Amino acid sequence: MDYEKSYRIIRFFFDATFLLFHTRSKSGGASSMRKTNGSHISKYIAFMIDFLMMALGCIGVLGNYAHSLYFPESIWLSLVLLYVIGIGFYFYYQKYQKLPQKICVIIFIVLIILLFVLYPIELQYFIHELQAVIEFDYFLNFNELLPLEFYTRDVFYQIIMLLMGLPIIYFIVSLISNKQLSFLKIIGMILLFMFPVFIQHELSFQESYAFIIFICYEFIITIALKHQQKQYPLKIVIILFLCVMSFIASTYLETNPLFQQESSSVLSQIIDWVSRGQGNPLNVFNQTGMSQDIDGSLPSGNIRLDDSLALTVHSEIPFSSYLRAYSLANYSDNEWHEVSENFENSPSLTMYSEWLMANSIPSITSLQITPQKDYDFQFIPYYFIDQYQQHTVYYDSYIEKTDEQFYSVYSYEDDSQMELEEGVFFVPDNFDETYEEYVYQQYLDVPEELDESLTNLLEENDIDSSSTDIPFIVEQVRELLSRQAEYDLNAGTLPSNQDFVEYFLFENHKGSCTHFATAGALLLREMNIPTRFVRGYTMQESDFHNGEAKIPEYRSHAWIEVYESQKGWIPYEMTPSGHIEGISQILDENAQQNQTNTNTNNPTTTQPEDEPVQNETVDTPTTSQSSSYTYVYMFVVIAGIVVFILMYRYLSTHWLKMKTRHMNTNKKVLIYYKTLLKLSPHHFINDSDLKSIAYKAKYSSHVLTHEEWQHFYHLYQQWIIQYDQSLKWYQKLIFRYLKGYK
């Protein structure tokens, strides 16, 4: 029986019946019209769901690029245009069952021509700056790759974003419309999404959740739905489920550090772990810099230096200061936590500033701090002045982010005209006795398991806890720590069953600023002195050039604040350097050494002296260590590439077999025949046996036998061989090794 002829006859009657029902009267065709309208509604809902997924994919990948690479804010115009282009690609596929490759290439070429014709100077400058960024490993900030005097920079960057986004939106539409090789496309989308992480940029929180919804939806659709275009109710259920789960995760679960701070390269940490036996390859916290939210976690492995830009400070007068982010009160389970109870109208940040202004001759300057990230808190200098109490202090710790200028007491000297006796001072107007009681309630806790060991350590070192001279006691504790441990960014991995402070003081004897600050705070609490753990950045007077200081991420630091009665919270340095200039110099030298030794990911420092550091030395690995590290790096990269190629080759050549493994013979034949139909415009299917078996599988109730399936598969392979022979040499490479047909 000629199945092709039968199919044409059936199709003729179907079309005739369809026209007949559409020309009937309203009374006779009401039921049919309702079915038709229902099918149209289903179709439109399916379109809307696909449009939503396309929007989420565009926001998740391209929106993250715009955020993490610091494009100008007006770049949203090109994102909207890319989304419109994606809709056009989608409808093109719906009409012709293929994506508009030629149209996409033409648009890409036109954009490149526009750049060369309209913006030749800007393009030349942009490429030159980009080469410098890559060569010297600077922080990639697209917003700074053109000088401000180029008035066309916004339009220029619109075209740059269109060039970057066009292949990506094409890829997104391909994943949504064409389910062939969906798993490989999903892997590709994840790699595109993770690109900012690979170059040590942060991911945006909202855009990342949009991408998660998009990629999870596509993954579930690929696995669960065989006829997904007819299953729009299930699509809606999946979307709602993913949205609810994302909302719950973002609200109730701990913040994913991948979205909230600059993430280090996992590959580089694994290499370091393999070559030296040190490090924590899966810990994303061990990198200099600060997360965008309040984070009390402590490093559990080696620390990598990040020389990207963190803050820009504009000040009338250059000065050295800590740039305070927030403080934390309670230490437990190897983490610092906020106060257990808030204090309304807290004078926490201004109390000591008021004391200085009342008891000395202060010098005041104005400054503005511009962070590169969108933090939940505001960085402030010491000693912050809030004369009109405009800023609310949250959790006795920080103020909200603001773009306003700040005023700070940057230096002060004794006022000889006061003629006060030693130990006598004026109490500022903002002193609150109830706040002092609050301080002694919140900032003296020490974990029970550490109480005895810390007390013994103080007694063994003859620390005089009876003295009323708090600066003297603090200095004693700092010297104790400098004898007990050394400052080292390569402290190794914290054992899972060990306490952070106990392991640092009594076993490992080395650590970073967080180790010294945490241990120092708890030791002082053992002597009934209120302390708190503080995070932020260090700033030196020498950082300023023409009224501006650029503070890199490797200047992130931890120190403590000590409360003195009726005065307020006073910052103290706990690292062996002893002061802000010393620790800043150590951090700078570490970063310089890190750039000089490009094969070294985790430079170590020797223990600094108690006096100000002038000639700090850095331990560098030997030549054999560097060579070993280079060989391991090359081996891992080459092995990774080989494994990827082999996996891709296997998946691409076995994809149809894997897809049809659990299908009956009829469905197998139809899947393979559809594959031929996609190639048939370039090589006509003229094998009558091949067509006959395919039509039989589709239109008859007969289930094909195993012998019929084997015969069809043999014909399929012959057709593929003939098609391959008709291709040019470069087309054969794509057909065989990229598409995996042979």
Automatic annotation (TrEMBL):
Recorded hits in Pfam families, A to Z, give: Transglut_core (PF01841)
Q: Which UniProt keywords apply?
A: Membrane, Transmembrane, Transmembrane helix
Segment Disordered: which positions?
Answer: 594-624
The Transglutaminase-like domain, residue ranges: 505-576
Composition-biased stretches, type Low complexity, lie in 594-607
> Is Transmembrane helix found in the keyword set?
yes
- Membrane-spanning ranges: 44-63, 75-93, 105-127, 155-176, 183-203, 209-225, 232-253, 631-651
UniProt-recorded name of the protein: Transglutaminase-like domain-containing protein
